[in-house]
TrEMBL record, chains A, B:
Residues 82-323 form the Fumarylacetoacetase-like C-terminal domain. It comes from Polaromonas jejuensis. Keywords: Hydrolase. This is Fumarylacetoacetate hydrolase family protein. InterPro entries: FAA_hydro_N, Fumarylacetoacetase-like_C, Fumarylacetoacetase_C_sf. Gene3D superfamilies: Fumarylacetoacetase-like, C-terminal domain. Residues 1-78 form the Fumarylacetoacetase N-terminal domain. Signal peptide: none annotated. The keyword Lyase does not apply. SUPFAM superfamilies: FAH. Pfam families: FAA_hydro_N_2 (PF18288), FAA_hydrolase (PF01557). One of its GO terms (molecular function) is hydrolase activity. It comes from the Bacteria. PANTHER family: BLL6422 PROTEIN (PTHR43211:SF1), FUMARYLACETOACETATE HYDROLASE (PTHR43211).
C-alpha cells in the first residue's frame, strides 16, 4: 500500500491512503490519524489500511479525492529517529579521490552513518529554505526505509524483517559548512538543514521483485532545473543493504518504531549514469580537470527526484522542490 | 511546576504533575496524557497544569499519590530532537591536554554539538544496558532544556525565550568506541547508547535566581558506586549558555517543540570539584602521571546524578542507575 500525510495545519498532518497509480487518495480517519500511530501498532492497523487501499484501487472508496502531492507533508512530518547511512561506497571513493585521500579499508566492512535532525522535516513540494547561497546548497537523492521496533543486537537479517515502508529522500546538504563541522569531530549539524521526503511511503510489496534482500533495484532519477542529471541504479552498487544499516544502529541500542534510515547518496561507478548530488559531479570534474566546474544550487533552482517502477509509473511520487532564501 | 512521565506500558507513558518537594504526584489526565502534547500547545496547556500543580502543593489534590521515581520514564520517553552540546570548554581542554592536542581557537566562539538518538530514551532508574564492558562504559552528568518552537535564525536571546523545561541527563558514552567513530568523520553513533533523564523536568521558575540568562547556578552531584565523585558548579564555567546552544541549531533550520538540548559534561577548572564523567578523571590522571588509573564502569556499577536547590531539596529527583549486560 501507499501512504501519505496531508497538510491540515497540525504538526503531524492527516494520514491518507493513496491509490497505486497515485491518482486518488482517501483519509485514513477511523483507522489512524497519523502515520506514527500506525508504526506504533503496525500489526493491528496495517491490515485495516490495506483493506482501504484495496477498496480505493478498485474505485470503490466512496470518499476518495484526487491526490495532490503539493498538499503533502513528509510521510512522517517529524520522527523520533533519522539515521542516514552512506551505503554507496562509490560516492565516498569519488569524493575522496578528488581530494587525493584514500578510502580506509574499514569503510568496506563498517557503514558510515550520521544521526540527522528529525523534528522538522519538509514535504515533497515544500521550498528548501536556506539563509545563504554561500553555504553551498546541494541536493542528495537517496532512498530511505521506516522501521518498526528492532532490538539491540539484531542481525542484518533480523533487521530486514523490521522494515515497514520505503520512500525517497532529498537530504539537503550545505557543502561549504561541512569541512568546518567535520574538523570539529562531532559530525554534521548545521550542514544538514531540514530534510525532504517523497509524497508517499510504500510497503515493500509495492515494488515486487525490485526489492531484493534490502536493496531496491530501480533507477533513481534526479532532475536539476529541468535537466535530467542522474539516472542512477540504486540496487547493485549499494555496498551495505538496509538490513546492515539498521543493524549498525542496533549494535548498542534499540531502534524504535518510526525510525527512518537512509541509504546515502545513490552512486554508480559508471559515470554515464550521472549523479545524485552536485558534490559528486564536482568530484568527477576535479578528478578529470583538477578543479570543479559545476556550481552548487542558487536561489530559484529546482530539484526533482523520482523513481519509476517496472511499469513506468512513479512509485513514490516526485520530490519537486525550489530553493529559496530564508526570509 | 514539575512534570514527570509514569510508565503505563505505552510508548509515551502518562503525564503526571509532581509536587515541589517530590513527595506526591497527580495524573494530568483531563489536561494532557503526554508531555509532547503539552509542548506542542504550551500556552494553552501549561496554565492548566500549573493550576493542578498549585492544588497539589497545597495538599488539596484529591487523587494525589506518593511519587515514586522508579516508576518514571524519561520526562519525554522519546523525542523529535536530542542535540547535545559540549558547552563546558574545560572538559574539552582537559581531554585534549591529556593527549597533547590543542583546543582550536574557533572552539571558544562556536559550540561543539552532536545530534543524538532520541527514539528510545530510558528512565531515571532504568538499567543502563550495554553489550560489553570492553566498550568503555562511562556516565556523563549534564543539564538539558526542552524547547518550544524556535525559528531558524533565532538569536541567543530569542532562543532563551523558547526554553520550556529543565532537567538532568546521563549521556551514557562508550569511550572505546569513540575514537573509531570520530576517525570516520561522521560523529558519534554507536558510542552513544540510550540516554537517561531525571525523574522530573521543571519550569525555570522552580530554580528561581539560580537560573540566570541561560545558565543554572547550582551544583551537579555525581555519585559512582556510592562514592561522591563530582560536586561540579554548573553555572559560571558554562562557556556557551543554553540560548547560544539553541541558536547554534537554528543557524540553518528550525528547532521544533520538544527539542531537547544538552549542555555536555559539566566541568570545573578547579579539580577539587571532582568530575561529571570518568573520561575527565582519566584525563587528569594522564596529565598528572602520564597514564589513567581509574577504570571505566563495570556491570553492576551504579551512578547517581542529582542537583539540590538553595533549600537543600532535590530539584529534579535523582538519576539512579545500574549498569547491566545486554541479555
Amino acid at each position: 500500500m501507499k501512504l501519505a500525510t496531508y497538510k491540515d495545519g497540525s504538526r503531524d498532518g492527516q494520514l491518507v491512503v493513496v491509490s497505486r497509480d497515485l491518482s486518488t487518495a482517501h483519509y485514513a480517519t477511523g483507522i489512524a490519524g497519523k502515520l506514527q500511530q500506525v508504526l506504533d501498532d503496525w500489526n493491528f492497523m496495517a491490515p485495516q489500511l490495506q483493506d482501504l487501499y484495496d477498496t480505493l484501487n478498485n474505485g470503490k472508496a466512496r470518499q476518495a479525492f484526487p491526490f495532490e502531492p503539493s498538499r503533502c507533508m513528509a510521510p512522517l512530518p517529524r520522527a523520533y529517529q533519522w539515521a542516514d547511512g552512506s551505503a554507496y561506497l562509490n560516492h565516498v571513493e569519488l569524493v575522496r579521490k578528488a581530494r587525493h585521500a584514500e578510502v580506509p579499508d574499514t569503510f568496506y566492512g563498517d557503514p558510515l552513518m550520521y544521526q540527522g535532525g528529525s523534528d522538522d522535516f519538509i514535504g515533497p513540494c515544500d521550498d528548501v529554505v536556506v539563509p545563504s547561497e554561500a553555504f553551498g546548497i546541494d541536493f542528495e537523492a537517496e532512498l530511505a526505509v521506516i522501521t518498526g521496533d528492532v532490538a539491540m543486537g539484531a542481525t542484518p537479517a533480523q533487521a530486514l524483517e523490521g522494515i515497514r515502508l520505503l520512500m525517497l529522500v532529498n537530504d539537503v546538504s550545505l557543502r561549504h559548512l561541512i569541512p568546518g563541522e567535520l574538523d570539529k569531530g562531532f559530525g554534521f549539524f548545521q550542514s544538514k538543514p531540514a530534510t525532504a521526503f517523497s509524497p508517499v511511503a510504500v510497503t515493500l510489496d509495492e515494488v515486487g521483485d525490485a526489492w531484493d534482500q534490502g536493496r531496491l533495484h530501480l533507477t533513481l532519477q534526479s532532475t536539476w532545473n529541468g535537466r535530467k542529471v542522474g539516472m542512477c541504479e540504486a540496487g547493485p552498487e549499494m555496498t551495505f543493504h538496509f538490513g546492515q544499516l539498521i543493524a549498525h544502529i542496533c549494535k548498542t541500542r534499540n531502534a524504535r518504531a518510526g525510525s527512518i534510515v537512509g541509504s546515502g547518496t545513490v552512486s554508480n561507478k559508471d559515470w554515464s549514469h550521472g549523479y545524485s548530488c552536485i558534490a559528486e559531479k564536482r568530484a568527477i570534474e576535479t578528478i578529470e580537470n583538477g578543479k570543479p566546474k559545476t556550481n552548487f544550487m542558487k536561489f530559484g533552482d529546482t530539484i526533482r527526484i523520482e523513481v519509476k517502477g517496472g511499469d513506468g509509473q512513479s512509485v513514490f511520487g516526485a520530490i519537486d522542490q525550489k530553493v529559496v532564501e530564508a526570509a
